[in-house]
């Protein structure tokens, strides 16, 4: 049976990488944004990191927000889209990967063209929640502070589970979104396998973060395993999913979301 979708990589030319406007001229970008807007329309993580008080309602921010991830992938990672095999060739899903020794926002062009404008679109309070860090380390105070700051807590949690630097040394799945009308038809599998096929022989791991519990089952079916924070290894005999997770509280505490780290490979 032939696959329901074809997968191809979107690649920006060197000229397109010279400005945000040039990047946004890539023909497939609008269709990719539309697919991601549908995929994450009622997503708790998306609402929380955008400073919303509730999930749903006005979701016009969703597509543009996830497009920033795609733009980072075009500049410093790899972007793949799944499209239907009929004459329409409709883009129905997208995966953004960062290869070993690369990560989102780690280059000057990502910071200038993507992160800077994104932070500029946020309120001062939300911007501080995203990226403000403390100058000195104190175990209890720092952990309490991270509970109110997104990126510091995110980095600390992935280091606590995978080990310091491991995510940076692996293939990291930053984003995977499928239009709900096309889910459970193999598109996610294809968007993961396209990278797995070229990394398996090199012994490189694939890692990701999951913020919806039902997606744990999806990724488990795709041969990913939950990773327990190293401080809990050998301490908890029969860990539950709650033992694997961390919880992120949004700005002003309006929303919060769980996070799990998953890994496939060595």
Oligomer: single chain
Question: What is the alpha-carbon Rg in Å?
Answer: 18 Å
Give average pLDDT, whole number: 91
What is the helix/strand order? EHHHHEEHHHHEHEHEHEE
Strand content: 15-25%
Distance between the termini: 31 Å
Low-confidence stretches: 134-147
| Annotation, overall tally of beta strands | 8
Biggest sheet record? 8 strands, mixed
Helix/strand-derived class?
alpha+beta
- The number of helices is 11
Shape: globular
- Which percent bin holds the helix content? 25-40%
Give a description of the structure.
The chain is α+β, with helices and mostly antiparallel strands and 266 residues long. It contains eleven helices and eight strands. Strands 1, 2, 3, 4, 5, 6, 7 and 8 form an eight-stranded mixed beta sheet that branches.
What's this, in brief?
The protein has 266 residues and is an alpha+beta fold.
Secondary-structure blueprint of this entry?
Blueprint: E1 5-10, H1 20-23, H2 29-39, H3 44-49, H4 62-76, E2 78-84, E3 91-98, H5 108-121, H6 124-131, H7 139-146, H8 150-162, E4 171-178, H9 187-199, E5 206-210, H10 213-221, E6 225-226, H11 241-244, E7 246-249, E8 256-264
Parallel strand pairs: 4-5
Antiparallel strand pairs: 1-2, 2-3, 3-4, 5-8, 6-8, 7-8
Helix pairs in contact: 2-4, 4-5
Keywords, please?
266 residues; alpha+beta; globular
